[in-house]
Amino acid sequence: MVSVFSSTEARPLRRICVAFGWTVLCWCSLPKAQAEDNELEYKVKAAYLYNFTKFITWPAKTSPTFNICIIGNDPFGHLLDPLETKTVQDKPIKLIRYDSAKQARDCDIAYFDNPDQRPEQAMAGVLTVGSLKTALTVSSQPFFAESGGMIGFVLDDAKVKLHINLKALKKNGLSVSAKLIEVATLVEGGEVE
Asked: Which of 58, 95, 135, 176 has the fewest beta carbons under 10 Å from its own?
């Protein structure tokens, strides 16, 4: 086969093709890497939601199931489904998805992915958990626990950290184990009335 380009003319073209190839390869793998990071983040949050059941004490309730509710958008997808094979306080776990906090009165844990959807009033006996969509940045928006929620997930160096508002927990009839407090940052914040 005869080349149209001499070897010296082909080198710059080859470099451009190689550089373009690396750019396309990196660009194509970026969304996949972000999706994998996002899935890992929500796997960690799903594990925390279940493990909270071991370190939080709820007031006695007569419902036949232990209800974990996702309020608004469900960022977990299938990641929470295995929880429905487990029990808490001798009750099977039931996952419920609601559009708004007003529907969540029968929940034991209510997770809010969007802090704007948090309840306007305290939900007695319901552990409210939430997170921010963005990582730690200087922002005028307070974190979930600092704005009256009980436990907030905060991303710090791509790691999920916990903020716990003890005052909000106690006010709503819940108590927390010292073991959970040891791995969290205690915060104070505005109360949901």
From this structure: 135
Measure the CA–CA gap between 91 and 140, rounded to whole angstroms: 41
120 contacts 142 by C-beta, under 8 angstroms = no
Q: What domains appear along the chain, each with residue ranges and CATH number?
A: 54-186 (3.40.50.2300)
Query: Measured between alpha carbons, how far is 76 from 163 in angstroms, rounded to an integer?
Result: 20
Which tokens is 126 given? 């319901």
> Tokens representing 86?
């487990």
What distances in angstroms separate CA 101 from CA 21, 40, 69, 122, 193, one per listed residue? 48, 26, 10, 10, 14
User: CB count, 10 Å around CB of 189?
Assistant: 19
What pLDDT, in 10s, does the model give residues 66-96?
Answer: 999 999 999 999 999 999 999 999 999 999 9
Confidence of residue 9 (pLDDT cuts 50, 70, 90): low
Residue 105, helix vs strand vs coil: helix
Phi, psi values for residue 74, rounded to 5°: -100, 100
Q: How many CB atoms lie within 10 A of CB 173?
A: 13
